[in-house]
Amino acid sequence: MSRATPTVFPLVSRLRIRRRRKPAPPAGPALHELAEPACGARLTPKQAPASLSAIDYAPETDAVRDLMTELLDVLSATSTEHAPDGLWEPRRSDALSLVTEATELLDDLTRVITRTRRGLRAVDDRALTRFYDRAVHIPSPRRP
What we know:
Elements: H1 8-14, H2 31-34, E1 41-43, H3 54-57, H4 61-82, H5 95-134, E2 137-139
Antiparallel strand pairs: 1-2
């Protein structure tokens, strides 16, 4: 290669490429120390409970049982209706209706599974609320 025909590589090699450094951790209180509950108290990390426990989920056992029972009922009914012998038999034999029927069946099952997941997330949210309510709070300092 002659010097008369410049290429991209020599130009790129002349550029200074700076490596990014990891940002320093923020100074000051941690994010969980800044959270103020509605009562005006602050949660401190030393006084917070370690993690969620069975106490937080105890009121939700019926809700979880109902969600899972509904899911299993729908799956059982779908299995009985569409695959009584353990093998799925489409109603029609042509390829387009086969794919359409499979998609509709999968959509129905996905809806039920999504509803169950949403319900379980709501149970987790309520348990987390109970967890935070159970946490020890100290009053926030009053400003003059």
